[in-house]
Amino acid sequence: MADKLSSRLYPSRIDLPADTRVKIVELLNQTLAATTDLKTQTKQAHWNVKGTDFYQLHELFDEIADELEEYVDMFAERITALGGYACGTARMAAANSILPEYPVDILDGMQHVTALAERFAAYAKHIRQAINTTDDLGDADTADLYTEVSRTIDKRLWFLEAHLQPAEVKSENGTTTAKTKEKVAAK
Ligand SMILES: [Fe+2]
């Protein structure tokens, strides 16, 4: 049922051909599902994170979830602007998302950061591929929307990964010694 709905098209005066719009709407519905899924998973981390980094991670995850909530609306409204049907319920998102379910057995801050970083990387890949797909289909506006989201998602992946990287990483020419958390703690 969800598959049919995700490519449903209503008549529109918009100047993009119907066969092009069907392809874009289908892709946008996949993105809508993944965005809703990622937003609720980020909220899950916001509520359930524990440990010494609790407060800053609790706040960071909320900030990221707010951004994703905006993207949910932007993707859904691009679908309807193209004459499509936005598949936006939680059940539809669960059925259509490309992301794995959030682990329920983690507590520590860095475990949550790792789980989110893995999901943000998969989502970032999907969004970057969609820039090219929609550009090739001749829809510069949808490609622009994907580009905007892509830039922020890359930035958020950096924010997450920065928690996981050593305090001092090896430079490209190898002159700087990597200082791991363990080495710092041993001092
Ligand atoms: Fe909250």
Care to describe what's here?
α2 runs antiparallel to α3, α2 (18-48) runs antiparallel to α5 (109-136) and α5 (109-136) runs antiparallel to α6 (140-162). The longest helix is centred in the first third of the chain and has 31 residues, at 18-48. It contains 7 helices and no strands. The chain is 68% helix and 0% strand. The protein is mainly α and 187 residues long. The chain has helices spanning 2-6, 18-48, 54-81, 90-96, 109-136, 140-162, 181-186. The chain binds fe (ii) ion. Residues 46, 62 line the site of fe (ii) ion.
How do the helices and strands line up, and which of them pair or pack?
Blueprint: H1 2-6, H2 18-48, H3 54-81, H4 90-96, H5 109-136, H6 140-162, H7 181-186
Helix pairs in contact: 2-3, 2-4, 2-5, 3-6, 5-6
The structure holds fe (ii) ion (FE2).
The site of fe (ii) ion has 2 residues, from loops.
In whole angstroms, the N-to-C terminal distance is 60 Å
CATH architecture classification:
Up-down Bundle
Rg on CA atoms, Å? 19 Å
Characterize the main sheet.
none
Please state the structural category. Answer: mainly alpha
What is the count of structural domains?
1
**Cofactors and ligands:** fe (ii) ion
Stated plainly, the CATH topology is called: Ferritin
User: Which homologous superfamily in CATH is the superfamily?
Assistant: Ferritin, core subunit, four-helix bundle
Low-confidence stretches: 180-187
What proportion of the residues is helical, as a percent range? Answer: 55-70%
Q: In the CATH hierarchy, what is the class?
A: Mainly Alpha
| Overall outline | elongated
InterPro entries: DPS_DNA-bd (IPR002177), DPS_DNA-bd_CS (IPR023188), Ferritin-like (IPR012347), Ferritin-like_SF (IPR009078), Ferritin_DPS_dom (IPR008331)
Organism: Fischerella thermalis JSC-11
Domain Ferritin/DPS: 26-165
GO molecular function: ferric iron binding; oxidoreductase activity, acting on metal ions
